[in-house]
Amino acid sequence: MHIALDLSVLERMYEKLVEDVVPRDVYDEAQQIVFEKMREISYPEYLRSPMYRELLAKLENEEEGKAVSIYS
C-alpha cells in the first residue's frame, strides 16, 4: 500500500530534521499521520479484503496457546 503525504506534512518533517529534532519525534508524527490516512481511506477496505479473511482463518485454526505465525 502506498500513502501519499501532503506537501505541508513533508515540509514539517523536513524542518524537524533540519532542526536536529530527535528522529523518534519525526517518526511518531509520520506514523500518526499514516495511521490516520489509512484509517480514513483504506482500513474499511482492508477489513473486506481476502488477505484479512485469510489472516482471521489462520488465527482461528491455530491451537489455543500456540504461537501463531501469520507469515508462513
Cα separation of the termini: 20 Å
State the assembly state of the protein chains.
single chain
Measured by DSSP, the beta-strand proportion falls in under 5%
Number of domains: 1
Q: Tell me how many strands there are.
A: 0
Largest sheet: none
Mean pLDDT: 73
Helix/strand order, N-terminal first: HHHH
The parts where pLDDT drops under 50 for at least 5 residues are none
Class by SSE composition: mainly alpha
Shape: elongated
- As a percent range, the share of helical residues equals 55-70%
* Count of separate DSSP helical elements: 4
Domain RGS: 8-56
Organism: Caenorhabditis briggsae
Pfam family, one: RGS
Protein name: Protein CBG25672
Description of the molecule:
The chain has one domain (7-58). It is 67% helix and 0% strand. It has helices spanning 7-18, 23-41, 43-47, 50-61. Helix 1 (7-18) runs antiparallel to helix 2 (23-41).
Please write out the topology:
Layout: H1 7-18, H2 23-41, H3 43-47, H4 50-61
Helix pairs in contact: 1-2
Quick rundown:
This is Protein CBG25672. With 72 residues, the protein is mainly α. The chain has helices at 7-18, 23-41, 43-47, 50-61.
Features of the shown structure:
RGS_sf; RGS_subdomain_2; 72 residues; single chain; Protein CBG25672; RGS; elongated
